[in-house]
From TrEMBL:
Keywords: DNA-binding
Gene3D superfamilies reported in the protein's UniProt record: Winged helix-like DNA-binding domain superfamily/Winged helix DNA-binding domain
Keyword DNA-binding attached: yes
UniProt-recorded Gene Ontology molecular function terms: DNA binding; DNA-binding transcription factor activity
Organism: Lacrimispora algidixylanolytica
GO cellular component: cytosol
Protein name per Swiss-Prot or TrEMBL: Rrf2 family transcriptional regulator
Length: 146
């Protein structure tokens, strides 16, 4: 399974907002720090905003901020919003794509286990966990820079 840039960038953008909880973060700040096109980020922030994950504030000190505490967002929530369904095969999507062979398909067990494993990982990691990991990495990086 491969995640698109939209999903990966949405996660990185949400992490940027979470790393700066007491300020509004401008799209161009995220773009610069994450080395991502600000035009692409504007499209992604629209999705995040419509879902109520972030809000915007206008003005000189304006920008975007999280609507909830980082501990209330899971990686799975963010990826599913940006990517849509994350099931590994179309026959698991919904009733429309439901395979008529599902009741007799032994390989479906593989896809269900894979889906459970992926969901277990991405739903078990919060944005707060990523903030902690990023800060740890930043400390280690700056330690080696000296």
């Amino acid at each position: 399974m491969t995640f698109s840039t939209k999903g990966r960038y949405a996660l990185r953008m949400m992490l940027e907002f979470a790393l700066h909880p007491n300020e509004c973060t401008k799209i161009n700040q995220v773009a610069k720090r994450q080395e991502i096109s600000d035009k692409y980020l504007e499209q992604i922030v629209t999705i995040l905003s419509r879902a109520g994950f972030v809000k915007s504030r206008r003005g000189a000190k304006g920008g975007y901020f999280l609507t909830k505490d980082p501990s209330e967002y899971t990686v799975g929530m963010i990826l599913r919003l940006a990517e849509g369904s994350l099931v590994p095969v179309a026959c698991m999507e919904d009733e429309v794509n439901h395979c008529h062979r599902a009741d007799v398909c032994a390989s479906l067990m593989v896809w269900r286990k894979l889906d459970d494993a992926i969901s277990g990982v991405i739903d078990g990691i919060t944005l707060a966990d990523l903030v902690e990991e990023q800060r740890k990495l930043d400390r280690e990086y700056h330690h080696y820079e000296i």
